[in-house]
Amino acid sequence: MSIETPPTAKKVPSERVHHGDTVVDDYAWLTVKDDPETIAYLEAENAYTQQVTSHLKPLQETIFQEIKGRTLETDLSVPTRKGDWWYYSRTEEGKQYGIQCRVAAEGDTPPELKPDESLPGEQVMLDANELAGDSDFFSLGTSAVSPDGTLLAYSVNFTGDERFTLKVKNLVTGETLPDEIPGIFYGGAWSADGTTFFYTTVDETWRPHKVHRHVIGTPAAADVLVYEETDERFWIGIGLTRSERYLVLSAGSKITSEVRILEADDPTGEFRVVRPRKTGVEYGIDHAGDRFLVLHNRNAENFELATAPIDDPGAWTPLIEHREDTRLLDVDAFAGHTVVHFRRDGLTGIRVLPADGEPYEISFPEPIYDAAPSGNPEFVTGRLRLGYTSMITPPSVYDYDLQARELILLKRRPVLGGYDPDDYEQFREWATASDGTRVPISIAVKKGAARPAPTVLYGYGSYEISMDPSFSVARLSLLDRGFVFAVAHVRGGGEMGRRWYEDGKFQQKKNTFTDFVACAEHLKAGGWSSEIIARGGSAGGLLMGAVANLAPEVFAGVVAEVPFVDPLTSMLDPSLPLTVIEWDEWGDPLHNPDVYHYMKSYSPYENVDERVYPPILAITSLNDTRVLYHEPAKWIARLRDTARGGPFLLKTEMGAGHGGRSGRYDSWREEAFTLSWILDTAKVSE
């Protein structure tokens, strides 16, 4: 196939009938991953994309060098205290992956580290560069130190399919033990004595459904199945309370939770149910001395915090009652205080509940920001570690002194090349949606940049996931070229509380798409934006496909990364990864005709027409287990066959998963490719 013209996907009509409706899918053959013809087509698309973007290679290299030049390549994290050790990670210039280290602890103040120097007594626990070797892809799924600090359980993956192999390292001797368990999922938890490790495995639809108990030093074949979840809507996970007194086995669908607990010093005991599952009730649990803390939404849409007796954890007494304006996100129990992470007015916050005093909230200086507890494994402590960032403030690590009630800045991520936050500005705007709802927009610009300006408008809008204000080194390559960068906090996300999410799912999913278009129109009408490039990934890729159909004339270009653009086909097939559990997010079109017809009315793949579409770049990964590669492949094929405009480009990573390339230098090059396409599409010259 010549690369002078776009590849043409052959048409092999495949019919399906649901609820009296006949659908013809000409490109269903692309779902056969191991068919040589499928691989050949994807490779032809890659060759075409490479050919038509070949003129951008100098710009790609320039942007890559900008990202690299602003990044302190040899760096380290702020140490976190756990037991007798300070734990931290290093990155080294020229190496793709991080290195996990620790050093013996003294006192509560983290040791002062220098990027190019090792501390006396520093121990390298795990060097991911050595583990990765020459592999094109590498990721860690688990890294958990036993409570006594002598063993490290870790898991590795070399393909991107998110199925890991568990290994155990003796941190005293440095040897890797014979224990090796393939096919496990993320996470895991140790027993109190460090003799036993609990882990999860997935079924054929990639749903974690079993918890196993492994005794260190015994063969994997002897592992005991602790729990199996038979309801296909529920995922399971295993962890420890902060006190490490209890193992917590959680089962959850998109809308319902059920938690089981077991004393961590009794690993062969029986887990007991905290409260039996009830559809629509979500809850989580932590241990605090003589009681449990329970965060739940029973008769509390935005959640409330309750306490429960140790011997009757299902008896909940309100501690922080429900508020219409405040969404409680998480709770962390410590020996002398409790910390609540919350969301209000589109921003996150932290509330401290001392055991012997009045509750209070920590204040932060900027008008828009994101703050969250982070790295607090110690149960007995007088400090709270938290992370902070904004659109112009690089990620920062603070300790909050609970006695003095003051923030202590431990580290702000260095940005090289003379970056000065005072050279940039951030704003909060509000668009008005078609139904009158006010939709927040976060904006970052360089001071003095001309307006209206070319703009990247980012969106997601699903699963109650919030796109909170955050910093990006790569984004500076846009801002310094006069771009506006904006995030549309559309319904379906969680920025404005649980109701914001509910109003952007099921039969109200189209609010997500119309909100995004309203934000784009607001930016143009307000003098912020000239050309707008829309960008989103995964479920945000569904948003990209939907708005391209809804208002193609509004956007100068669209970047859709691992995009969920064929939701109807996927949600009709319960054998696919994630489908059944996703019915609680999108609805069940297989059994409900109303859901079927509503989803068909917005599905990007189903609604491509003959109008003029903007240029579209779709990026996917062959081994993605969450949004399968064939969704964007089919979408681009249909766009190219049906729509006018474009060009429509498909780029497939042939050896990566949902998160794309794994190494940091590889991921920087991928971002440089995307940003160069954005600049070219917006007709911004160097």
Structure, explained:
The chain is of the alpha+beta class and 686 residues long. 19% of the residues lie in helices and 35% in strands. The chain is built from twelve helices and 41 strands. The chain has an eight-stranded mixed β-sheet with strand order 32-33-35-34-36-37-39-41, with helices on both faces. Strands 3, 4, 5, 6 and 7 form a five-stranded antiparallel β-sheet that branches. Strand 25 (337-344) and strand 26 form a beta hairpin. Helix 6 (510-525) packs across helix 7. The radius of gyration is 25 Å and the shape is globular. Residues 469-683 form the Peptidase S9 prolyl oligopeptidase catalytic domain. One of its GO terms (biological process) is proteolysis. Pfam families: Peptidase_S9, Peptidase_S9_N.
